[in-house]
């Protein structure tokens, strides 16, 4: 009740302010909750990490856009799972005969389960961004496992999902080239999100395909299988034929 009243108030003030540019605050959760409240991204109750106060308004604006893109990309994935099931060629390619219950559950959990305590911060608190210039777009904090540092290089190197298929195929650039998919991957480093179940067991493309074909129990537990599945489904949904590239 409280929530819908707040939404109406936001809506009313936007309408009455006519063409005035909306001003975004720096609080990811609050902003995004109202932005996605109309189910435009295919999820009814997405949750978001908190952005620490060290994320300034510029950082927060870029992160909020990327978080919205995470919803968009994962909504295409969920839609495909619901419509085409486990016999789908895209499903088989990345998850083999792994359980679709697991895959559906992982998407639901990552998007809609509570992210209480999950924090993104924009200060280079451990100095790892500075120590890995042009390489670290962010990192999980092993000593404070609910926290993720987003480095400035994230904003410089990660691309909007709308540019998929523009700079090269998915296999060449990798799915984490896209900001929305990269943030999805960052959730999976956080214990309350990966539940010690999904992890980075393999990252080389031939290993991912090997999992799908020969070890599907681990295909549905491996982070990169999810990232490739999302990019593959998304690109083929918006570009005829998609742009996966050659799976040698
Ligand atoms: C963001 O908003 C929530 C809910 O209004 C509040 O509890 C939280 O303290 C805010 N966080 C920041 C960093 O401002
Ligand atoms: C926010 O921080 C970034 C570096 O992360 C900087 O480039 C930008 O100018 C800052 N923006 C504001 C509004 O302070
Ligand atoms: C699956 O395992 C078989 C037998 O070890 C192997 O020949 C095949 O190359 C594997 N598939 C992939 C995609 O690695
Ligand atoms: C899944 O595929 C593997 C490898 O081909 C096979 O050993 C296993 O029996 C299959 N599982 C199911 C449930 O079909
Ligand atoms: C499947 O992959 C896991 C993790 O890499 C490995 O421990 C396990 O031995 C593999 N299983 C098979 C049947 O190859």
From TrEMBL:
<dbReference type="Pfam" id="PF13933">
    <property type="entry name" value="HRXXH"/>
</dbReference>
<dbReference type="InterPro" id="IPR039124">
    <property type="entry name" value="PRA1-like"/>
</dbReference>
<dbReference type="GO" id="GO:0009277">
    <property type="term" value="C:fungal-type cell wall"/>
</dbReference>
<dbReference type="GO" id="GO:0005178">
    <property type="term" value="F:integrin binding"/>
</dbReference>
<protein>
    <recommendedName>
        <fullName>Putative peptidase domain-containing protein</fullName>
    </recommendedName>
</protein>
<feature type="signal peptide">
    <location>
        <begin position="1"/>
        <end position="20"/>
    </location>
</feature>
<dbReference type="InterPro" id="IPR029482">
    <property type="entry name" value="HRXXH"/>
</dbReference>
<dbReference type="GO" id="GO:0008237">
    <property type="term" value="F:metallopeptidase activity"/>
</dbReference>
<dbReference type="InterPro" id="IPR024079">
    <property type="entry name" value="MetalloPept_cat_dom_sf"/>
</dbReference>
<feature type="domain" description="Putative peptidase">
    <location>
        <begin position="17"/>
        <end position="246"/>
    </location>
</feature>
<dbReference type="GO" id="GO:0009986">
    <property type="term" value="C:cell surface"/>
</dbReference>
<dbReference type="GO" id="GO:0005576">
    <property type="term" value="C:extracellular region"/>
</dbReference>
<keyword id="KW-0732">Signal</keyword>
<dbReference type="GO" id="GO:0008270">
    <property type="term" value="F:zinc ion binding"/>
</dbReference>
């Amino acid at each position: 009740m409280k929530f819908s009243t707040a939404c109406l108030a936001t809506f009313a003030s936007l309408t009455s302010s006519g063409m005035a540019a909306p001003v975004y605050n720096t609080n990811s959760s609050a902003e995004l909750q109202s932005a996605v409240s109309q189910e435009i991204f295919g999820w009814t109750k997405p949750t978001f990490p908190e952005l620490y106060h060290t994320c300034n308004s510029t950082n927060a604006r870029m992160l909020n856009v990327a978080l919205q893109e995470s919803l968009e990309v994962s909504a295409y994935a969920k839609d495909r799972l619901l419509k085409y099931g486990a016999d789908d060629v895209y499903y088989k390619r990345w998850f083999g005969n792994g359980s679709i219950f697991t895959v559906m559950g992982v998407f639901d959990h990552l998007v809609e389960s509570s992210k209480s305590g999950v924090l993104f911060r924009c200060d280079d608190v451990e100095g790892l961004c500075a120590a890995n210039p042009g390489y670290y777009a962010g990192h999980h904090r092993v000593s404070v496992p609910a926290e993720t540092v987003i480095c400035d290089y994230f904003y410089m190197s990660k691309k909007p999902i709308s540019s998929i298929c523009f700079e090269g195929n998915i296999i060449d650039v990798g799915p984490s080239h896209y900001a929305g998919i990269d943030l999805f991957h960052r959730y999976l480093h956080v214990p309350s999100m990966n539940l010690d179940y999904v992890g980075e067991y393999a990252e080389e493309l031939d290993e991912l395909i090997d999992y799908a074909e020969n070890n599907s129990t681990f295909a549905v537990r491996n982070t990169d299988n999810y990232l490739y599945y999302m990019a593959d489904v998304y690109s083929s949904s918006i570009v005829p034929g998609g742009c996966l590239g050659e799976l040698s």
